[in-house]
What we know:
Blueprint: E1 4-6, E2 28-30, H1 31-34, H2 38-52, H3 66-70, H4 94-117, H5 128-154, H6 161-165, E3 167-170, E4 182-184, H7 185-210, H8 212-215, H9 218-222, H10 245-259, H11 262-274, H12 286-290, E5 303-308, H13 311-322, H14 335-341, H15 349-352, H16 380-387, E6 389-394, H17 395-408, H18 412-425, H19 439-454, H20 460-467, E7 471-472, E8 478-479, H21 483-486
Antiparallel strand pairs: 1-2, 3-4, 5-6, 7-8
Helix pairs in contact: 2-4, 4-5, 5-7, 7-10, 10-11, 10-17, 11-17, 17-18, 17-19, 18-19
Amino acid sequence: MKKIFSFILPLALLASCDSYLDVKSExxxxxxxxxxxxxxxxxxxxxxxxxxxxxxxxARNLTWGFASAIGYNYxxxxxxxxxxxxxxxxxxxxxxxxxxxxGFNVIANCNQVLAQVEDKDxxxxxxxxxxxxxxxxxxxxxxxxxxxxxxxxFAPALTTTANAxxxxxxxxxxxxxxxxxxxxxxxxxxxxxxxxxxxREKLGYLDTIFCRSWNSREDYRFKTNGMSGKPPRLxxxxxxxxxxxxxxxxxxxxxxxxxxxxxxxxxxxxALIKGFNGIKxxxxxxxxxSSKSSFRPNRPSxxxxxxxxxxxxxxxxxxxxxxxxxxxxxxxMDDKTMNALFAxxxxxxxxxxxxxxxxxxxxxxxxxxxxxxxxxxxxxxMLQYFAGLFPVISLPEMYHIVAECQIRxxxxxxxxxxxxxxxxxxxIMGQELPLEVTADEAMKYLxxxxxxxxxxFGQTFxxxxxxxxxxxxxxxxxxxxxxxxxxxxxxxxxxx
Length: 496
């Protein structure tokens, strides 16, 4: 029987124990047909990104939705998150189950692409070996990312030897694979790192040399207007919304940080900051963070990789959770908590620019990052290309990683210089923090910076989980955590 490949979601939800590994869709195409030529392979790869850009994964749950709610980026979640914000996994909602199922569907799709293309000769691909390396590298990288994010939710952090050795979930790297073996958490992470290293190696020449000219500007990473030196095929466009060499580098820094290998984490994060072959990421401008005429949601110049969804579809989804009546309290942080989090730094543009403020084009103090913005007609291009981006990893996190590694190896003043740099890039001028502080004091300054920077991007929960620390979101705002609260049980219907 010929295999069937799913290249467009939605999934059919199946009840069997291995259903999350089945690849089903309302659009089913014979795999011999879809992988018969380069166009079909590209269609399959684009289908993987379509899946990633659905609300069940990065267009809601793993960015502004579930992941931000459990990290207390909101004091008012939504009715959908009432148990999740309490980390009450006994009253299990459908959200974690959807993340698990859709995540493994993405993994299965990656594995089928790899099974079909890895053994093909370079001559099969329209652009030869470069084209093949691009597809193979992207699929290895996405497979690694998806396993890593599932591990961070459904397995304990590696804070103890027992946690590291605990058998928790599978790492699926073959297709088909209906009955995978669950392995230790540390092995899941090691496999994700292995795959991401392969992705980085495969994508290096493509992104730093062949695609250099259109990787050097935020405009060209996410849109095509005004691009010179056009790529040979449409598939080579939009490198910022595909797994790329820079994203693989940054994600390896995040992965090594989670593992506790601080030397490797600092090495990769520092390399990303320094840049490759003249390609560097830049901080958002003051105007793009605060000016109505220039506002850029998601800070696109800083984004190393983001998945994309049509912005109108995104706004419809967001408003379904936040409420179209912006006076509702959903998906907001209350004034007292927000004011305390930014106390003494009221000039911080994350506070001034990314909160909705009555009297300007913000209303009712909801985050401007995700809200429907009232631009003039002349700014439609900005909405079209940038408002639908869902950042997976961005430049400021690289500075957070470097600063934490510096603190851990005793370079406190260097870490504080990096923290002060980040503060200045967010409009806090003339208020430098002291350089001569203790390691504990430096970590507290870094904690504040991480929480402020990470609001609604879905990473706060994991920063605290990695260290086994209570979730902190401002003075007198701390959530006591334990192992049961940190780790979401694997959905019962999917346990093997």
